[in-house]
Amino acid sequence: MSVINFEFRNEVLKHNASLSYCYQCSTCSGGCPIALLTEGKYNPRLIIEEAILGLQDKLIEMQDPNLWLCSTCQKCVELCPQKVELTEIFTLIKNRCFEEGEVPSGFVSQGKAVLDNGVAIPFSNAILARRKKLGLPEIKTASVDEIKTLLKVTNFEYHITRRGE
Amino acid sequence: MEYDLFLGCVIPARLPFLEASSRKVFETLGIKLNDVEGFSCCPDPTGIEQIDHNTWLTMGARNLSLSKNGNGGILSFCSGCVETLKGVNFSLNKDPSLMEDVNKHLKKVGKNYDGKTNVKHFAQVLYENLDLVKKKVSKPLEGFKVAVHYGCHYLRPSEFIQWDDPFNPYTIDEIVKALGAESLDYDNKIECCGNPVEKSDKDLSLMMIENKLKAIQCSGANCVALVCPACYQQFDFNQRELSKKEDANYEIPIFYLSELAALAFGYDPEDLGLNFHRIKPQEFLENINFIK
Predict the structure, then answer these.
(1) Which of A118, B155, B182, B190 is a plausible cystine mate for A147, CB 3.0–4.6 Å?
(2) ipTM value of the model?
(3) The model's pTM
(4) How many domains does chain B have?
């Protein structure tokens, strides 16, 4: 059984007060391509309801509905008659999952690539040759040390490294 | 007119041919793109932002701080990069305390963001210069029946993208028509390609792209135009796998808007690297008698 966690609810509300505007009309779910294809298993209205109730265990531990299925197409945000910033609220909850719950491995490997290279996709030799063939200039991307310094300050390095172990 | 070019990761490091056609188009138009040293990942709004919003803001603000180009600001060939850079800019300008926090982080690497960098998608700049684009067309795209795929982040959230219409977009259709092609409507035109879901559920992601491809086939279109490298990969890389199924056969050539513009400006398909596509456009271009 789920337990109401007032602290969690207040945290979400403090981060994004638009949560309290929701009157559960379900316009978001009606327009959501993922809700359609999963036959309602993924359901943005239900995620918002669980956030309003402060059901931290449902959202972060059980991940029911699974927030990682959101395609970030932003249709729900655009459609909401109450201007609830759904995807911003989903992002906060997914950020909490990153700190203390499950995260699909693709997100972690991308994060690790950015930490190690400053970019999500490092330049392979094959690509460098192809760039030359296409007459493209050499690209000087960010200093890896500089990005590492920033990612240490934001605690990103800690969370990514912890997951890699 | 000039802009600071923000390339991001996917285009330069995986799909450099898209960069080649885009650079050629802007060269032809006489719009200068400056190569800036030191940009990082934007970072990815469908990836990094989803696991760490604060890191997304900080790295995004660092990138924005590197543009010293005044009001011209940044131009990007990628809808994801545009979403991030516009989104970070909007969030920080909306909330001064957030701006202060992010600048405290940036101070550690000797940087500061003043909140004043403009960001534009390359398709926006093409639309804003549509008369100039028309003047440069030397080989109109006759026989091209284009299904335009806008992609989500070119349009939404409209609150900070502030360009075109989030549900009834028209700018790319107008550009395609200016190049001499026909633009066809289809059933799920504004729907997501499904690329961001790949990290969580590959089957779901394939279902989304297959639905789009089916609708495009039904519309009578013979090719697709799009403006985002994530959408490009989703459309071009998955057709063969989907065609393995018994009742499916997808072979729709996928063009970046810059490739269509470059073809209409008279560039040779070979110089654009069109042979690097998975669905090879060569045969299509011959079939419609665009090339001999």
Answers:
(1) A118
(2) 0.97
(3) 0.97
(4) 2
